[in-house]
Design goal:
The chain has 13 helices and seven strands. Helix 9 links the parallel strand 5 and strand 6.
């Protein structure tokens, strides 16, 4: 049975997409079968996995509106396969923004993705869902099928601001829509140990959230930022960079955590 994780944080630019594609590639590298779902109309996770969002025949939009199944809509990227880090991709582009509006009047609108993923459950060990920077109906669709939520955070002064909203949303989804939604894990990203404030915030996170904070810390690393322009996750673009190595370690940590779930 696949373990499903949302990568969510209603702030933009905090590292959700970078986390999603690199964790997907890292998990593939350690032998896990992975489906990456792009739930953001910006389609960055799609492009960052080497799939051209302007040339999609089918996408997650068609899946949400039930005009295609996941098996019909998923694609692969030849570049990832070449590197031995292949994962399946349920891609997104601007069309997805329309789904939000079109779904409002439909039945079971927050469970559409859950229903669709049910049909491919046996094909994967992990499903990773890259959420948009909002607590919208799209994010709700992600949370309704997830077993856990990974929250990438920068260790800055305002890091905890907004976390309360996300935690409340997760609690409500757990109470009303998805009893399986169990864990939330905070992932420290874009970390620069030379900055004292970042060290302090990192310690505060540990003190307050304990083992809900992942052990792995993702450093700020320019190779991770360069990789998307080549249509590759950093883990594929430059496996030996510090950033890529951290994501491979995070993939291993996730495999261990899932065994305990
Ligand atoms: P989000 O999906 O939350 O909007 P992104 O993953 O797109 O955030 O990251 C925002 C920007 O920060 C991107 O330009 C990305 O390349 C860069 N970035 C993300 N993580 C790192 C990192 N660890 N080191 C350096 N740059 C990073
Ligand atoms: Mg993003």
């Amino acid at each position: 049975m696949a373990k499903i994780f949302c990568i969510a944080n209603q702030k933009g630019g905090v590292g959700k997409t970078t986390t999603t594609v690199n964790l997907a590639a890292g998990l593939a590298k350690v032998g896990q079968r992975v489906l990456m779902v792009d739930l953001d109309p910006q389609g960055n996770a799609t492009m960052g996995s080497g799939v051209d969002k302007r040339k999609l025949e089918l996408s997650v939009y068609d899946v949400l509106l039930e005009s295609a199944s996941v098996s019909e809509a998923r694609v692969q990227s030849p570049k990832l396969a070449e590197a031995g880090c292949s994962y399946d991709i349920l891609a997104a582009n601007r069309e997805l923004a329309g789904a939000e509006v079109e779904m409002v009047s439909l039945e079971r609108r927050e469970k559409r993705l859950k229903t669709a993923l049910g049909a491919v459950d046996a094909d994967y060990d992990f499903v990773l869902i890259d959420c948009p920077p909002s607590l919208s109906l799209l994010t709700l669709n992600g949370l309704c099928c997830a077993h856990g939520v990974i929250v990438p955070m920068q260790c800055e002064y305002f890091a905890l601001e907004g976390l309360a909203d996300l935690v409340n949303t997760i609690k409500q989804v757990h109470a009303n829509l998805n009893k399986d939604l169990a864990i939330i894990g905070l992932l420290r990203v874009m970390f620069d140990p030379r900055i004292t404030l970042q060290q302090q915030v990192s310690e505060q996170l540990k003190a307050r959230f304990g083992d809900k904070v992942f052990n792995t810390v993702i450093p700020r690393n320019v190779r991770l930022a360069e990789a998307p322009s080549y249509g590759l996750p950093g883990v594929v673009f430059d496996l030996h960079s510090k950033g890529a190595q951290a994501f491979v370690a995070f993939a291993q940590e996730m495999v261990e955590r899932v065994q305990k779930m």
